[in-house]
Amino acid sequence: MSTEFSILSATLLFLFVIDPFGNIPILLSVMKGVPQKRQYQIVVRDGLIGLVILVCFLFFGAEFLALLHLETESISIAGGVVLFVIALKMIFPSPYTKDAAPVMEPFIVPISIPMLAGPSTLATLLVMVKSYPNDQQDLLISVGAAWAISVVILAMAPLLNRVLREKGLAALERLMGMLLLMMSVQMLVNGVRSLFTHTLAAL
């Protein structure tokens, strides 16, 4: 990530963190037995709830960080570490075991939280809010774009599963993991560079 805000870069970052392709197997499991038309309605409904959560964190995230007295450099470095760990898990996933299908259809969990507005996505959003305090409108566009793409992908889960199969989905997730890994390292570099710059300036 460069020090100058980019809507496209931020959109890709949020999309990689949300990782809709990696969530498809889980979604198919919890939707088992639910009519396909109803599946679309559930994804849209829970997707809107997830969007509300993301927007709330976008506009109130700065106040949350100010309350904790966190500096931009520490947020950038911590965010880079978190994204680095997420990327490694995407590249080297743990074996996925399907649970028994739930008796009731999903509501909020797991689509709104944690698929769309999970801890990783919210933490990344807080990092972006702290790093680019004057670009909230552009951040809103990025969050909205990443959210829309993710919801479309999740809604197409049955079709994508038939077309790509398990190996194709796994390959896409690993590719997204590699890209996220590079972005996380750049975030770490930016944070460390800024920290050293401020330290030298204070001497």
From TrEMBL:
Pfam families noted in UniProt: MarC (PF01914)
Domain of life: Bacteria
Transmembrane regions: 6-28, 48-68, 74-92, 104-127, 139-160, 172-189
Predominant subcellular localization, coarse grouping: membrane
Membrane topology type: Multi-pass membrane protein
Keywords: Cell membrane, Membrane, Transmembrane, Transmembrane helix
Source organism phylogeny: Bacteria, Pseudomonadati, Pseudomonadota, Gammaproteobacteria, Oceanospirillales
A single Gene Ontology CC term: plasma membrane
InterPro entries per UniProt: Multi_antbiot-R_MarC (IPR002771)
Protein known as: UPF0056 membrane protein
Family: Belongs to the UPF0056 (MarC) family.
Location in the cell: Cell membrane
